[in-house]
Specification:
heterodimer; A: about 280 residues; mainly alpha; three-stranded antiparallel sheet; 10 helices; 3 strands; about 65% helix; B: about 80 residues; about 80% helix; about 0% strand
C-alpha cells in the first residue's frame, strides 16, 4: 500500500513539475494576469477605494465575497473542533479529582469529587498533567502579552497602509492569549474569556462581516458594495469604502482571534476544559 | 533577488519538508513543520509578497505549531507507522 502511495505521489509530482514549465515566467509582464487585471488594480485602487495597500483593497473590497467565506471557513473549523472534541458527560467509573498545593509548605493534596477543601486561602489549584513554567517565563510572558496585543490591534487597524489585516492581527491577538495559557495554565485564560464568550464572539465576527454586506443589500445596492454605506458612516462614498474595509477587518480579526483560542482550549484539554497545556 | 540566498532557502524548505515527513518523533515533526513554514515565509518575502509572508509567519510558523504541540501533548509522541 505504501509503495502504491509513493508511486502515485511521485507521478503526480512529476506531472505538476511538467505542467509548471508551461506557466508564465515569474514577474512576466505579458502573462495573462499582468495584462489587464493587475494594471487595473494598480492604477484604480487609490482613486476607487482610497486605500494605499492594494492587497488589502483586493482582499476586503474587490474580492470581499471570497474573504467573507474564508472567515466562515475559519468559524466552521472552530465549530467542528468543538463538536468533535468537547465532552460534557463523563464515564461512570471516572471521578473528578483535583489537586491543590499548600503554598506555604508545598504539600500537595488530592480532593475527590464530593469532598471540599479545608477552609483556608493558602491553597492553590494545580494541574495533574502539566507542570507550570518557572517564575522567569511567567513574568516575561506577562510583560510581553500587552505589547503583543497592542501590535495585533495595530496590524488590524493599519492594514490599509502596511502589510497585515484582520487575519494576521487576529492570529497575533489569539497567540498572545495562547501564550498566557502556556506560561500559566489553561484555567487562567478560561477565567478571563469564558468558553461561551469565545463561541459568541466567533459568531459575532462573522456576523459583522456578513452584516455589513447585508446592510448594503438593504440600502438598495449589491451585496458588499460599500459605497452605499456613506450616509450611515457620515462620509463621502469614497471614504466609506475605506472605512467599511476597516469594519470588515475588525470582524475578521474578532472571528480569527476567538477561533484560535477555541481551537487551542479544545485541543489542549481534550475537550474537558479542566486542565491542559 | 539574490540567487544564492534563494537557493539556500529552497534547499532548507525541501530538507525540512522531507524531515517533517520522515521523523518518527511527532514533537520533532511539529517543530520541523514550524521551521518549514518559516522558510516559506522567507521565500514569500523574497518574492515580494509581504502580506502572504506575514500570514505564513503568524499562522504557519506561530499558531499551527502550537496546535500540533497541543495535539501531541494529548495523544502520543511516537508514530504508529
Amino acid at each position: 500500500m505504501k509503495i502504491i502511495g509513493l508511486i502515485i505521489s511521485v507521478l503526480t509530482g512529476a506531472m505538476l513539475v511538467y505542467a509548471a514549465a508551461d506557466f508564465p515566467a515569474w514577474s512576466d509582464p505579458s502573462s495573462p494576469a499582468s495584462t489587464y487585471l493587475s494594471p487595473h488594480f494598480i492604477e484604480k485602487t487609490m482613486e476607487e477605494t482610497s486605500v494605499p495597500n492594494i492587497v488589502t483593497a483586493v482582499l476586503a473590497d474587490y474580492r470581499s465575497f471570497d474573504t467573507m467565506f474564508e472567515t466562515a471557513v475559519i468559524f466552521s473549523a472552530g465549530l467542528v473542533c468543538f463538536f468533535l472534541l468537547r465532552t460534557t458527560r463523563r464515564k461512570e467509573s471516572e471521578t473528578e479529582t483535583t489537586h491543590y498545593r499548600h503554598t506555604l509548605t508545598g504539600v500537595t493534596i488530592q480532593i475527590k469529587e464530593g469532598h471540599t477543601l479545608p477552609p483556608s486561602d493558602e491553597f492553590e489549584r494545580i494541574d495533574s498533567l502539566w507542570t507550570p513554567s518557572g517564575l522567569i517565563i511567567k513574568t516575561s510572558c506577562r510583560l510581553l502579552v500587552p505589547f503583543i496585543q497592542l501590535f495585533g490591534l495595530y496590524v488590524i487597524a493599519h492594514g490599509h497602509y502596511s502589510p497585515g489585516g484582520g487575519f494576521q492581527g487576529g492570529v497575533i491577538l489569539g497567540a498572545s492569549i495562547i501564550m498566557l495559557a502556556i506560561s500559566y495554565d489553561l484555567r487562567t485564560i478560561i477565567e478571563r474569556i469564558s468558553e461561551k464568550m469565545v463561541a459568541v464572539l466567533c459568531a459575532v465576527g462573522v456576523l459583522i462581516f456578513s452584516g455589513t454586506g447585508a446592510l448594503c443589500l438593504l440600502l438598495g445596492v449589491n451585496f458588499l458594495d460599500y459605497n452605499a454605506l456613506a450616509p450611515i458612516l457620515l462620509v463621502d462614498p469614497l471614504t466609506a469604502r475605506s472605512h467599511a474595509i476597516l469594519i470588515v477587518e475588525i470582524g475578521v480579526g474578532v472571528a480569527v482571534m476567538t477561533t484560535m483560542i477555541w481551537l487551542y482550549c479544545n485541543l489542549s484539554s481534550a475537550g474537558k476544559y479542566n486542565q491542559g497545556l | 533577488m539574490i540567487w544564492q540566498l534563494d537557493l539556500a532557502i529552497l534547499t532548507l524548505v525541501v530538507i525540512t519538508g522531507i524531515g517533517a515527513l520522515m521523523v518518527k518523533d511527532l514533537l520533532g515533526a511539529a517543530i520541523l513543520f514550524g521551521a518549514y513554514s518559516f522558510m516559506m515565509c522567507l521565500l514569500w518575502s523574497i518574492m515580494g509578497a509581504v502580506d502572504v509572508a506575514f500570514t505564513e509567519a503568524s499562522v504557519g510558523a506561530g499558531v499551527s505549531a502550537v496546535f500540533f504541540v497541543a495535539a501531541v501533548f494529548r495523544t502520543t509522541r511516537r508514530t504508529k507507522d
